[in-house]
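request received
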Amino acid sequence: DIQMTQSPSTLSASVEDRVTITCRASQSISPWLAWYQQKPGKAPKVLISQASNLESGVPSRFSGSGSGTDFTLTISSLQPDDFATYYCQQYHSFPLTFGGGTKVDIK
Amino acid sequence: QVQVQQWGAGLVKPSGTLSLTCGVSGGFFSGSYCSWSRQPPGKGLEWIGEINHSETTYYNPSLTSRVIISLDPSRNQCSLNLISVTAADTAVYYCARRPYYRGSNSWGQGTQVTVSS
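response:
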């Protein structure tokens, strides 16, 4: 199985901060990585597929990059609606696996 | 616009069977997977398994001996059955439609399933 390691597990930030979350896979998975945002009591929402493709309706302040085993989700200017937990997921091969999550909270 | 709804029992007795169904309106499972995940209280997401329109299934190795995912293409529905449940299976269970080569882009509302006598 491919292991996904996210860091940090918690991140404290302020509105308009630039935020970066990383995800490392135990083997190469390019480009089969998705990023999700989850708010308390809600289902996850996909932000990015194929490591860097922004899903329809997702604000342009979100971007994804990376290749091989190392990937990054960047929020260029954090907005109040962005305080949430973020997960990466590899879909290079079955079984699919999620990262442990990164909670972005208010500094 | 694709909408996903899910339903099923929210309380299951230990050693019983968890059964949930997921329906897709405004879309199809063709060209996509029906995907199930779960989230224990206060924890992260765990992928359970998926089925494609050809009814090929893929399961989490930690659950493969207890889980069955099936598809009813005529109704645009898929189902999750998990047998021999214990308290460790208590979680919010999610169904989602995952297009090939992409992340899951349509999710059900989630079902809280509690395993308790």
